[in-house]
Design a protein that fits this description.
heterodimer, A: seven-stranded mixed beta sheet, four-stranded antiparallel beta sheet, 51% strand
């Protein structure tokens, strides 16, 4: 089945630094990937839709200059949290859907970001 | 405004009991999906329902899509400790991104 690999699984960084999270579709091509943020004991909140070869579409309230998304190939999307602050600490998850394999989405295993 | 209302938010039951989780909306969805998420991991798809009135079974789990495609339910029979986790319903309308409910945190006590 479709597999989405997300890396790293966890990262600790200092305030003011930037962190890049990668999301790869391992056995299929994904023209669209999605980035979510999840706070403890809460559901997933869509941050942005990553489109291969074009600009990402951000949800209302999500700062595009802070959360940079690059989808340079059909198998890789990256999310860079720039100038990270403690309030950016969260669980970030990506997802993609393989065309022609039904409606279900495959999610990465998530990245736990802690900003200290 | 939450597009998908999921209830209950928390549920703690004894092993062997039955339970039902509900996912309701005033909007019509082209498909509705149920996911299960373990701590520190991404959600894993359990089932997708697309036809109004559709019922799907996955071992002890029964999923139903409302006739009007606005609501869905997940019923677990004879719950086991291994069923513990966060259950999420998610709906899709056309080509728009998935919309998630707030989730139901289930704890099954042995």
């Amino acid at each position: 089945g479709a597999v989405v690999s997300q890396h790293p699984s966890w990262v600790i960084c200092k305030s003011g630094t930037s962190v890049k999270i990668e999301c790869r579709s391992l056995d299929f091509q994904a023209t669209t990937m999605f980035w979510y943020r999840q706070f403890p004991k809460q559901s997933l909140m869509l941050m942005a839709t990553s489109n291969e070869g074009s600009k990402a579409t951000y949800e209302q309230g999500v700062e595009k200059d802070k959360f940079l998304i690059n989808h340079a190939s059909l198998t890789l999307s990256t999310l860079t949290v720039t100038s990270a602050h403690p309030e950016d600490s969260s669980f970030y998850i990506c997802s993609a859907r393989e065309a022609g394999r039904g409606y279900g989405y495959t999610f990465g295993s998530g990245t736990r970001l802690t900003v200290v | 405004t939450q597009l998908l209302e999921q209830s209950p938010q928390f549920l703690s039951i004894q092993e062997g009991e039955n339970l039902t989780v509900y996912c309701n909306s005033s909007s019509v969805f082209s498909s509705l999906q149920w996911y299960r998420q373990e701590p520190g991991e991404g959600p894993v798809l359990l089932v997708t329902v697309v036809t109004g009135g559709e019922v799907k079974k996955l071992k002890r789990l029964t999923f139903q899509f409302g006739d009007a495609r606005k609501d869905s339910s997940l019923h677990i029979t004879a719950a086991q400790p291994g069923d513990t986790g966060l259950y999420l319903c998610a709906g899709q309308r056309g080509n728009t991104p998935l919309v998630f409910g707030k989730g139901t945190r289930l704890s099954v006590i042995a």
